Amino acid sequence: MTSVRRDSLLGHNEGVSDSSVGTRRTFCRICEASCGLEVEVQDEQIVRIRPDAKHVGTAGFGCIKGLHQHELYSSPDRLLRPQRRRSDGTHESVSWELALESIGDKLASLRRDFGPESIAMYVGTAAGFSLLHPIFAQGFMTAIGSKQMYSSATQDCANKFAVSRSMYGFPFTLPFPDLDRTRCLIIVGANPVVSKWSFLQVANPTKRLREIEARGGKIIVLDPRRTETAKAAGRHLFIRPDTDAFFYLAFLHELIARNACDRARIDAHFSGFDEVRQLVRAWTPERCAEVTKISAADLRSIVDDYVDASANGGAALYCSTGVNMGRNGSLGYWLQEVINAVSGNLDRAGGTLVGRGVVDFPAFGAKHGILMRKDRSRVGDYGSVNDAFPGGVLADEILTPGRGQIKALVVTGGNPLLTMANSGRLREALTKLDLLITLDIFPSETGTLAHYQLPCTSPLERSDLPFIFPFMLGMQSRPYLQATQPVVPAPGEARDEATIYLDLCRASGVNLFGSRIAQRGLELARWRHTKSKRLAQPRIPQEALLSVLLRISGQGSFKTLLREPHGRERPVGDGGDFLSRRVHTADGRVHLAPTPLLEAAQRLDAQFEREATAPAGLKLITKREVKTHNSWTHNAERFAGPGQDTNYLFMHPDDAAARGLAAGAFVDVRSATGQVRIGLRLSDDLMPGTVALPHGWGHQHAKGLSVASRTKGVNVNVLAADGPGALEKVSGMAHLTGIPVEVCAAAGDFDEESWTGTPEGRFDPESLRRASTRRA
Known about the structure:
With 776 residues, the protein is of the alpha/beta class. It contains 32 helices and 28 strands. Helix 3 crosses helix 24, helix 11 crosses helix 15 (296-310) and helix 14 crosses helix 15.
């Protein structure tokens, strides 16, 4: 075997020679970067993954998670057969025939007795990184006749979809920074060096950011923490958590006060500018500095850089989860988009671009009403976003009696018990369901409660094309297209999700997409494909279906694309083709002042006063870690072994000293919703008044995960509120960052159910009890 040189844990380029062992090329599907990979296979087992140095889009980059993902998939904890829950709460293996028949009978009876809306689905992030999975999942719910869809988007990004629908006429119209040409990039509440960007396919973000500086561009990072991104490039300024909307208001106020808006573009392509100008009139940099803690002088210097770059090559504002998950995520993103638009940077090289996929999905979706439903939730009266309701009311929809009460839930590609707000209450709700089904690779925390766990293929065990964002929307900084076949066969009786949903439709007596022709045609195709290929498990002809999509879009066949194993380059957008042709509002103009957002902005004065007059206190933010990916990389020793098997609360030394706390102490973290106990670490990378707790932990209830269940971290989402009134009204987003908390020395008896781990990473509850008693 050749050795692998690792430049950093964050991602790297590696110069390695090809091995004589069978090498198969594919692309990663655990995040939006979709890095090209070379996979060494021996006896149908993966022995090594390395970056594809010749890949046209990612050029030899790969992160530690992507390069060792096979260690997760090869775990002995993999679900290999369908699992049925016994009366004692444990699970037993059953045949696919029995599982499908039992599930189908139950779904049919619930549909008959309580109506289609009694059956719901939760779609997790993992589902989104496959092209066919979400399509067939929606096809199943259409077959059932239920609109009860819930997704992980309302935990981290639904604000962008809601705003884009209001401004541009379609939720998936999502402008992104032109990284290769911008002269000024302002990053607010995002950490792309670790997260690998969001809503944009960018490999090797550290290199790309440094390239901006190398050509004379400026990067400014605003974040309550001096993140890995802030350390890699640019200028960093602290901003008080959950005050981003006031930063954008001050920025836009200053932009308009300078007459630095492109009036010709505004008159030609936008509506609502006068309403926006009136809104920001009172929000001066001096006023907003009271809550953001960004001085008026610093604010104006940021605007200086942005305006100068706008006149000399283009500038862009970009935000992600740090803005999205605050109480004003929609307002923050809306104001950012207004700034990029009125400054003349929207749809411009060097500014922000709107990508083009291989098909014009926004035009198709807007014409046919796809992702454009106008219905509202039974509980809380929240509007659907991307045809899905807020996950933050899922527990209420299960627990609240009446017509439309959820009786059955299908969880596909997600783990809501760890990722959703107030997960303790959601746990209670899930136990009340008549039927809970999970489609997953592993027996997750949610799966532990499921009546049935259905084993699925991993990303490396199926044929695929890039997921919807790059494929149908062109959200790539360096566009390309690639096809992949399975790298290794699926183990045991694992099946791909598309095939499972086809079979669940048949078992439930319904037709996929509500079409008898589609159901019978796909069943016949599955039978023929399985027989001709002599497959151990039935499988729809994925490559044939993907080939149809390619041919419709003029890209040739799947087989043809496979002949370009390093990917096929696609044209880079130059801007200038969106505003005049691809805005899908009724009047074809970008709406700068949508009514729902203007109405929401009227509440900002009261929020400002509360923020400005509230006693100085701590606000909790979440934090990404290099070796974790949301909640699902913790079942491998490489990522969560001894010494790295817990999360910690990070606090500024001054805040710790003011509370009499020292590094290594155990602390209780309390919000209005919940409490956790955790070890403390100190960091001057945090803005005073801010504490950070990495998300994705809390696996103690995960039966069947031999590594993850031994970890000791806490679930930060226990501290976040759910339910009506706790969610942001425009998008249904939960408030998952900037949460007011109290932190004090751990005191009182220790509850092993909420065990979080010692600072040394050892499970020693007795010493914790003694330490807690001494501190009390």
